[in-house]
Amino acid sequence: MATVFVYDNYTNRMYRYTLRESDPMPYSYGSTLRVREFRGSSASDVLWTTVRAMEAWNLTRRSYGSGIYVGYAFKRIWEGGHGTASQHYAGVSFDVGQNTSAAVRKKIWTTAKNTGAWGYVEPLSMTPTWVHFDRRYGTPACKGTTAGYPTCRVGSVSTYVLVMQDALNALGYVCGSPDGKFGPRTKNALMAWQRGVGLTADGICGCNSWKKLTAASVGIGRTGTVKD
Fold first, then answer.
1. Which of 62, 79, 97, 171 is geometrically suited to a Cys-Cys bond with 105, CB 3.0 to 4.6 A?
2. How many CB atoms lie within 10 A of CB 27?
């Protein structure tokens, strides 16, 4: 069984589901994306995504008209496998088509691009053996980039808050089980971590905090303070 959090971008609410590996992902079209496929290589029993990412998947899958192999979708930040600002950790990114031909990947890429549903479809020249697309959201905390994570503060609700909570827990600044809701306990944990690394302890996860937090936590493995 898996716990799946889904952030609804339209209502700013986080929903929680308990699902089997063979169950369809919430908000996904039919059985085109099951929990085990979205999980990919992640060993976590807790996963998360957004309604808009599922909608983008649905449109792509309908437009493509047949199955799309998903090699990598979700990863928790301490599992690593991607860069320090990867959208895979926020549950809104897909790497697909790894077991297909170049011609098939070109068709998948063209379909994804033509839907207009994804915020970013990576050029095929950068992904020689897979197709990457993601449905990131929010304004990046670091200026001059379209990548990275948005500023999170008390009251924020998002899968980016889940990433932040997960990273803080992994580093020993425990804020409880990740729930995607930035409350007082999360703020206290963030401030304690900020003091520990020499940042201004303002309880806001902005550009500098994201850079240091992700660099310290990505790929470190499941520590004794990770919470599910």
1. 97
2. 18
The pTM of the whole model exceeds 0.70: yes
Task: Judge whether residue 53 has pLDDT over 90.
Answer: yes
Taking Cα atoms as reference points, which of 78, 15, 9, 8 lies closest to residue 43?
78
Q: Which of 78, 88, 98 is nearest to 135 (CA)?
A: 88
Cα 135 versus chain centre, distance:
9
Structure tokens given for 72: 């990598």
Token representation of residue 155: 């009251």
| Six-digit token string for 147 | 């990548």
> Which candidate, 159, 138, 161, 158, places its Cα nearest to that of 209?
161
Q: Mind listing the pLDDT tens digit for each residue in 165-180?
A: 999 999 999 999 999 9
Q: Is residue 56 left, alpha or beta, with left meaning phi > 0 and alpha meaning psi from -120 to 50?
A: alpha
DSSP string over 59-90: HHHHHH-S---EEE----GGG-SS-TT-TTTT
